[in-house]
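Inputs:
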Amino acid sequence: MMRPGASGTLIWALLGMAAAAVAARATYTTDLSAFLPRSPSATQRLLVEQLRSGPAARLIIVAIEGGQPHTRALVSAELTRRLRADPRFAAVNNGDTAGLDRDREFLFRNRYLLSNAVTPKRFSVHGLHEAIADAVGSLASPEGMLLKPLFAQDPTGEMLGVLDELAQDRAPTTTDGVWSSPNGQRALLIVQTRARGSDTDGQEEACRALRGAFAAVRSGLAAAAGRDVTMRMSGPPVFAVASRAAIKSEVVRLSVLGAGLIAVLLLAAYRSVAALLLGMLPVASGALAGVAAVALGYGTVHGITLGFGVTLIGEAVDYSIYLFIQRTVLWQLSVWPTIRLGVLTSICGFAALLPSSFPGLAQLGLYSIAGLEAAALVTRFVLPAWLPPNFAIADLTQLGTRVHGMLRRLASARLYILLLPALAAVYLYGHRDSLWNHELSALSPISLADQAFDARLRADAGAPDARYMVVVSGRDRELVLEACETVSAKLTQLVSTGVIGGFDTPTHYLPSLASQRARLRSLPPPAELSERLNAALIGLPARRAALKPFEDDVEQARHSTPLTAASLDGTSLETPLGALLMQSSTGWAALLPLRPAGPHELAAADADRVRAAVAQVSPARVVLIDLIGETNRLYSGYLTEAAHLALTGFAAIVLLLLVALRSPVRVMRVVVPLALAVIAVAGLLVALGQQLTILHIVGMLLIVAIGSNYALFFDRNRQNPQHASVPLTLASLVIANLATVTAFGVLASSKVPVLADLGSTVAPGALLALVFSALLAYTPEPAYTHQSAPPPEPAQPPPTGA
Amino acid sequence: MKLLPAVALCVAMALGPATALPAAPPAAAASSADTQPALDELMRLLAARKHGHVSFTEVHVLAIMQRPLESSGELMYDAPDWLEKRTLQPRPETLVLAGGVLTIHRGGRTRTLELAQHPEIAPWVESIRATLAGDRAALERYFHVAFSGSLAHWSLLLVPTDPARADTIADIHIRGDGAALRTLEIRQADGDHSVLTIGPELTP
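Outputs:
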């Protein structure tokens, strides 16, 4: 004969195995960008794609510090040599001339394809005369002296024109033949990993290889010289690897710490190892169900979602606490229905997160719903059957009586305590303009110091992040490149009028096929060129005979084929082209970063001028993007969305309570203390100098979801005093609350801001929710009867619930 | 993000004909010990001059040109590191050396070069800048310096110390009277040469 509850156990075991199978086969990711918002517009999506996997996401800037300048230069050179031989790195640049040999040859050979000065007019008699006169004039200056060796081959100065366009940005300073910071204190290398930005494993391996190479180079130095030389790395791959390591270690640390502390708490309360272990059963089941649900719903499970799992421990453990402590008083008649309503309100709260376009929040919502539901069902249908016949925990009546005494004393001062939310509300109103942090970087797990170091290295390396860029997108590459050329022409005008300082475009590296063909068509055939050259040289000092190499080169160029992206492979043009021109989900897109004319970013009026100039260029889509503004706008959108979702969740909870309790007064009694707790916590956070982020909003929703359990128990005690034991209710609530505060308190200590924000909101919030609920529910004459009835026989539970 | 460094001018160097003429050790080096005090004296004299505004004419003799390139204009100097060379004829061009940055305006275009980034240009510019400033240390960073003549009529012979530079500049000969520079003659390794002749002080 089956034991009572055996069918529940059987179903639990089967579902548990299924969930374990799903969880085991799920993909886990710690790539932080996967947690970041999905972007709504095509342009924003492109930016996020670029951020995640574009070439910019593969760049590491390496700084070599300490020691003597020549030692740093030596280390830079040797490190470069080693990394260039390592297949894990696609490009390694330290400013040495060796790395540029191939580029020079490439640029010079293809100057007639690359120079936008090559037009039919340029190769007319008059055009040749002007161009050569220009070049002759430049020969009298210091730079002209350096151009002299090119004159015979390139008397029209195309090479200089090509280089001028390419070299618009300031290159890093050179010290002892290698790149350095402007003060020469750090040697700089720019390294591109072969692994994509989204391949964190590959990035981690590259970072390790880089550190290994540096260690090897350093140990090769004389002991005295090598001791002082250190290396620092920065850039997206380094950050991705560091974030992942931080999240990994945090998830483990927080889970172990949270579970350990709660175990100690429960052991102290129950004084029963059996009760502790049985109490973990709903938690473990809930965690497994949560992971399985997220894996099924989203395909991948984010590491941070697991971190949030700690919060589940905090709430799911409450159910077994209620069961164990209040088991003696009409569990199925009075305790379980209250828990059931509490679970439903929590689910209402978390369900509000499901439609969030912030993938992390949606995962958190699903994880919590599945986890809480599983934990509650296990507590109801499985756990009672598992309790051994002689199951007993310490009698907590005394604790409850003591808490009740404390409550009585506090109640006389409750008006003063309720001043706290009132003050908080006034304070929040006073600071209403600066409450919210609208910057996405607020969520970055990278420390501000590391972000600042990265910005400094980028500035040193002459590669600061552009704030404004023109984005050109279209269905194929040639269409986009041609549009880029039209946009470039407009932007060049804006440069000459001083609206912008300069810009970069993929067509500096790879002109469209159409313009390359047009340039080749501008080159006259040999006889024609010779004739025009004769006429063009009249009045110029250049020797006619000296220009034979020019005629040969032009003839060779006439028979060359236009460049394609593949032609750039292996040159250092490949990297910038890849960064500026990319295939997107909807076709091709090009980025044209703008440089401000002065030291400050573009003014809004200038940005409008650019916007007007590049509008309606061609069949391609052309937009000007303010990168920082766009990202923050995007994030602000999510912030607003989260606030709306939280309010919707709150409304859903109120509605549910109205249906369940059928009394607006009772609903008020449940909801008001929770609202007060939320206001008090928000005021507290702001007063402590925090700016509220999206995670604080979620935290407030959690306060309501968790706190509703407390308020419902107080409501029950008030409605059905004969069904409750006030001391036992109070004891179970205090223990449950301590468990929740512990779990979220641990989370608040996290170095990952996403987790810390949540913890620091919910930990004090849950505590206040309990205090306020207790104080508002307090009635001067306690109408409780101490019941010491034997534990009710766990009857065969009806399958549909009690 | 731009990875390509401003290679602008060093590119030209590498593409040029490889006419590597290792610099012969300067003959004057042996006698430099005797002329040390005089050289120091000259440097002090030059350093004492804080401003200058003169006219100049310059002649470049290049193998690829069938006749010399002549130009003229004004030179302005403010101690210790601001130098402007304003060419008026035959084509307007302005070179400004301020701090370590060389700015070139020509034909409506402006080009900026940091000397620190272009070690191959520095000797061309520093030969005249450091001489005007009486900055012996700067001169000797690039050249072996030999003094001859008297303070009233002196002559400096600069020979590049870096053999990598010697394939462009063979030597630079600067002549002057007292605190005034008169001529600056650059002989290049390939036989091309130029003479900068400095005229009398202009009153602004």
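Remarks. The first strand of chain A starts at residue 27 and ends at 29. DSSP finds 31 helices and 13 strands in chain A.
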